[in-house]
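Collaborator request, handled under Task 6.
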Amino acid sequence: MNKKKIILKSVGFLTAGVIVSGAFLINFDTYSWFSDEMTSQVRVMSATTEDLIKILDKSMEEENGKWVNPKEIKIKGTDKIATNATFYFSLDGDIKDYILHINPAKLRFKGGIYTADIKPNINLIQFINLLIDGPKKINGTLKIKYLNEFIDEPREVSFTREYLIKQFRKEFDKNDSKEVVRNNNDEIKGDLIEVIKYIANKIEWNEEKNIKEGKENIASIDKSIDKIKLQENQIEIISIVAPKILGYIENLEVTINDLNKVIDENVFKIEKLNVEKKILETKVKELEEIKKENEKIKEEQKLNIEKLTKEVDKLNDYIDKLKDNNEELNERILDLKEYKKDLARTIRSLRNEKESLIKENEKLKIENKELKKEIKNLKDRLSEDNDDDDTELSTDDDDDDTVVDDVYGSN
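Structure tokens returned to the collaborator:
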């Protein structure tokens, strides 16, 4: 058992040694530690950068020693460089966030040329920042390394904002954005919508003024709605997000203009009605004044009626009194009528008596005349006897005649 373990351990160590040796041999591209390849690499260690490589066409501009917007870099190995020499590239500064990692370059033979592409790697957030308020230039350092940084050749590199934006757009145009969104799930679409909203909030759109003017036109009576003026890029965005909305907006504009005409007609009618309303309000005021006057007159009439009522009451009382008096008078009249009748009867009786008295008076006159004659005769007879006695007798006769006249005189 111990022998087997020892044999197995020995085989394991041997196998591990072979694998490690093979790894070292592969790394140096040779089957021997003492080949010309190894010797040449050892000799290179004493050479300078210019002795080993040359930088050819950079496809770029230079500005104050800086490489500006480089698209690629070409490296040519000299006769002093080893075969299959591998170079490494590193990026420092801000450019490392905007440029893809550059893969190592291997020169297959002496004098070989290797072209390393310098490709921008811009994400959407970086693109938005560049568009809105990004720096005008992105600066950094590109280093070329060889033999564990024995050669460490730095180059100052600068990328302009316009160049990076242009490269992003080129890359974006290569992909079918609609197809990308169609294949993404709802969560990715939601994130993209948030990005679109973020971008839209950062941009001052030109139609805002047109919308304000449109609102002012809506407020006016005689103006129609102007069409919303959009830029071509805005129309493209709207056509992508909501393809039918522009046609819908046009229909709305036509509808709104038609409604505006109806509103104008109604406003005209309303103005006419307002004029009529003012006229009616004036008439109402006049009627209110008349009503007030009528109320005053009514109050006055009420007072007058109250006064008249009182007077009527007084008159009624007076009439009642007059009625009472009238009744009394009627009774008196009746009494007077009865009295009149009595008087009439009395008058008739008196007239009868008068007539009888007249008749008697006539008789008495006749008798008186006869008596006078007799008296005269007597006087004549007695005159002779006694004058004094005649005188007295004469006087007495005169007195008797007077009495008779008074009693039986004319009617």
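The cover message to the collaborator said: "DSSP finds eleven helices and nine strands in the chain. The first strand starts at residue 53 and ends at 55. Please let us know whether this matches your experimental observations."
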